[in-house]
């Protein structure tokens, strides 16, 4: 009898020892390329989750950004991810890059303005969108919303040429610019973004503005885009304000993702905003007050946390 009790006791202890590992939530976050803000802020969120959320380990995954993140979340390859508002909206409607079928996505939070920054170098002969006709242009990573939005801007202006389009990561794009292998690069991110800060330090960078007529036509077709202005001095070579297109960054997950898990993730992030704000200047725009300004319905878990923490 004593032996039996000892065996049972050891078994119970063993179960207690392994149960935390078995119960651990492994959280994968779909971000973007390493030169963009999605990755920088996503890595910051992973660190916060690892530090403050018991029984969970999080990892920021390098991806092709919005479109890839949505498809991988839908396939249960990622727990949650970053997306531009427009791409998230279109994924739920089965339009744009998702014309093959709508996907069941829900929002976790509005994050910060993400703007289309079209960069070139002094001497490339590009000052306006009209000058981009016939030029070699990196639209952004393949499968990214950068490539979608940049293409739409160029198409609205009538200067898009598939033969001259390339799909490079942000870091690859800036290197190609410096090396003379492309003439302009499109980067969709909060400003300033690391890839363009680095480019500006290496060469005389020029930002290409979106003119009023192109902006009006674009917003007329795609009302989820917004006019925005990058203030003068955001980059060292930028002497004047630059008119750009804003497509806000949004955090999202699959609609049927575990409600309790998403509520805990939402609470962990928004209860530790001081730490997240220290990751990058753009992260300071992530606020509880604006978190629910999302283009699609909130996930039930995120909504539960916001309702309990107005």
TrEMBL record:
<dbReference type="InterPro" id="IPR011852">
    <property type="entry name" value="TRAP_TAXI"/>
</dbReference>
<feature type="signal peptide">
    <location>
        <begin position="1"/>
        <end position="23"/>
    </location>
</feature>
<protein>
    <submittedName>
        <fullName>C4-dicarboxylate ABC transporter substrate-binding protein</fullName>
    </submittedName>
</protein>
<dbReference type="Pfam" id="PF16868">
    <property type="entry name" value="NMT1_3"/>
</dbReference>
<keyword id="KW-0732">Signal</keyword>
